[in-house]
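Input chain follows. Return structure tokens only.
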Amino acid sequence: MRILYGVVGEGMGHATRSRVVLEHLLSRRHELHVVVSGRAEGFLKDVFSDRSGTGPGTIDITAIHGLKLVLDEVGVDRSASLWANLGAAPEGVLRNIAAYAEVAMELQPELVISDFESWAYLYARTHDVPLVSIDNMQVIHRCRHPEEVTAGRHSRKALDFRIAQLSVKAKVAGADHYLASSFFFPPVRKTRTTLVPPILRPEILAAEREPGDHLLVYQTAANNAALLPLLGKLPVPVRLYGMGTESPVDVPANVTLRPFSQQGFIDDLRTARGAVAPGGYSLMGEAVHLHVPLLAIPLQKQFEQQLNARYLSMLGYGAWAEAPTEEAIVGFLDRIDDHAHGVSRYTPRRNDLLFGCLDELIERAASGERRMDSLAVPSLGDLVSSRTDAALGEDTVR
């Protein structure tokens, strides 16, 4: 089948997740055309450099213009993000028009898959092509959540939750089916929705948990030098990612600045006593899979990260805090044995359930079926641990 696959380029989690799905589709001899923006373009082109071309079992990758988020030390800088996107808009429009002509004239896709990406979604809706959504964001809109993670009915956080729901709904509205990836499994409230476990890259699936003494810390603000003195007060060795290998201030004796390395990061994660990171879904799913206790510090004005962090804490897999304070990190370390016990209850799963769902959707779309309310594959609710069900108060349904 000829498949158009859209990958949002903001954040590398979408790219690493899509890589797993694309490799599976190539193994099934589908002809793929990927539209992608941002850093994800270079990553995917490098991964699939030996599979490029046209025809069954090949992949063609086209760069498109996507929105960009500008981060400061605590979260998303909305003003800077707005101006950055406005400045790039004219060139971006021209790039997307060229990509449209290439896809429409050359590929003529029979199916569109969107990983929370708007360009491919709009193509599917404009040309009435079957559309499948694969991402973690749809859990926000298509599932029911307890007030414990939505912060109640009458608070500002409740308003943030409602805004996030509406935004996610609008992003890929009207898909024929939604595969929502999650490490927590709330009750599904919408048809055409199937929950699947975290989509894990092969390097994570091959990793073995060997707990050590160090704390892995991942942070996204490269100039956040104020973090170093705080980490220097901790009673454990720290391996710090996201700041490079040079610092404008003295690096404490217990802190090691680590350069970016995919395998190096995985090794430090699987052997960590615990980890501290923002609330990004991909890293959180990997930590939970490997049974690494995590302190999540979600970016401000990023409700999806806040939701992830609250579920992490509620299920006993770790803790969350609004800021990387000494009190929050020391409190996490003081209870790390409890968190380790909690996350050990999570049942690691491979990508087989996702692949089974996707293969079924492709087969049914090829036969002309649309608006697929449910799938023949087992409900993820049958696989969820009793600990998760008890925390959420009811079984997960498809």
